[in-house]
Amino acid sequence: MKSRFAPSPTGYLHIGGARTALFVWAWAKKQHGKFVLRIEDTDLERSTQASVDAILQGMDWLGLDYDEGPFYQTDRFDRHKQVVQQLLDEKKAYYCECSKERLQILREDLTKQGKKAKYDGCCRDKGLNVGVVRFNNLEEGLVVFNDVIKGKISINNKELDDLIIARSDGTPTYNLTVVVDDHDMQIDCVIRGDDHINNTPKQINLYQALNWDLPEFAHLPMILGSDGTRLSKRHGAVSVMAYRDAGFLPEALLNYLARLGWSHGDQEIFSMDEVIKLFELKNINKAPASFNQEKLLWLNQETIKNSSVENLLNNLTWHLQNQAITVTDTPDIKTIVQHLQGRCKTLVGMASEVKMFYQDFDILDEKLAKKHFKDKAPLKHLLTKLKALSTWQANNIKQAIKEVCFELNISFSKVGQPFRLALSGNGNAGSIDIVAELIGKDKALSRLKMAIDFLKNSRY
Ligand code: GLU
User: Fold this and answer.
1) Residue 126: phi, psi to the nearest 5?
2) Among 262-266, 273-277, 304-308, whose mean pLDDT is lowest?
3) Which of 41, 154, 160, 202 is the most exposed place for a label (fewest CB within 10 A)?
4) Overall domain count for the chain
5) What residues make up the domain containing 37?
6) Which residues of 47-81 are buried (b: 16+ CB within 10 A; e: fewer)?
7) Residues 191 and 66 in one domain
8) Contact indicator for 174, 202 with CB cutoff of 8 Å
9) What pTM did the predictor assign?
10) What percent of the chain has pLDDT over 70?
11) Residues whose beta carbon lies within 6 Å of some atom of ligand 1
C-alpha cells in the first residue's frame, strides 16, 4: 500500500502541510506500506529551489522519513505530455485558442444569466493543433465517489469545465500531472487537504478517460486559527521551522498535529509509535480543527519533562549554538539538562538557563537587584558559611541558608532570592541549593562576592 505527500514548493513547510504529511506517513506506516514524497513543481513561476529545500528541511526535522522520492514532477514532463497526446489522439482532449478576452466576456455573460461560469466548448470540434489543451469533459451524468473522511460526494458533470490540461507552451497543469503521477506511482490512497476536494471529480473523469483504476480519496478538514478563520500568518508562526526556532521538540509538534482533527478517546499524549498503531483515517473529524498555541506549549513542556536526556541534548545543541553558549566538561551538561527538564517550557528557555552554569556575567538585572539587594548582611553571612563548607552539596548549602535565616531571624526568601539573583544574574533559576551545587563552589562564591561588591557600590 502506498500514499504520498505532494507539496508545491511555493513556500516553506507550514503547519497544515506538516499535518497532511504526518497523516499520510502514519497511514503508510500503519499499512506497512510506502510513503512517497513528490514535489509538485509544475508551476514554474512560483516554484523555487529555496522552497524545496525548506520543505525537505521541515520533513527532516520532524523525522517524517519517506520511502520513495523526493520525485519532482518537472522530471516527468515527457510522460505527462505523452498522456496529453494520448488523450488528444483519442479525441478525449482538444486544442483551444480562445483569447483571454473572449473567455472573460463568456464568464461575465454566464454569471449575469445566473449560470455556472464554464467554458462553452467553442473550440471542441474545430480540430485545431495549437493553443491550450482542454479535456473533453462529459456533458451528462454524475461523478460519485466515497471520500474516506467526508463520505459520499456526488457532482453533476454539468458543473464541470472542460479543464485545461496543458498550457499553450505545452507544459501540463496540476490536475493532469497529479493523475498521471498518482497512477504511475501506484498510489492507493490520496490523502490531502480538503481545499482539493473540488479537483477530485475532474481528476476522476481523467482516470476514467484513461481507463485507469481509481485510488481512494481522503480529504482532511482544514485547520482554523483561534478566531475561526483559516490558519494563516495572522495567527502567529505557521512555518514548521519557526517552531524549531522557538524551542519546540519535533515530537511535541507532531503529537500536537496528530491531535488536530484526529483523536483516540481523550488521550492527548502520544508517541509516534502509538499514533501509527492507533491511526485510522475514518477517525478524522469531518469538521475543521482549531489550532491552539497554548495547548501546543503545554504539550511541549510535557514532552520535555518526559524526554530522555540524550534526546533533549540532541535538540538543545542547535539552540546552544544559536545563543552562542559554550558548554564545557564541568558541570556535566547531562546533569544540567536533567535538572532543567522539569521546569522549562521550551528549549530556548532551557538554553538560556544552561548559560549560567558555564558563563559568568557582569551585569545583574537592575529591577530585581532593587527588589532583593536591600541589605548586604544576609549575603555576607552566607558567604562566610558557604566558604566554610567542606562538602559542596545541595543539602549542606540549604542548611547554610537556613542557619543564616535563623541567626538573622529572617525568612528563607530573604536569603534565597538575593542568592538566586547573585548566581543567575537574572533570577531565573530553579532550586537554589541544587543550582549552587551544579555551578560549583568557586563560581558560586565568586558570584556571591560580586553581588556583595555590587551592593556596596549601589545606592539601593
Ligand atoms: N500540490 C498540491 C498542494 O500543495 C497537493 C496536491 C495533492 O495532494 O493532490 O496543494
Assistant:
1) -80, -15
2) 262-266
3) 154
4) 5
5) 2-72+175-223
6) beeebbebbbebbebbebebeebbbbbbebeeebb
7) yes
8) no
9) 0.92
10) 100
11) 6-8, 40, 178, 192, 196
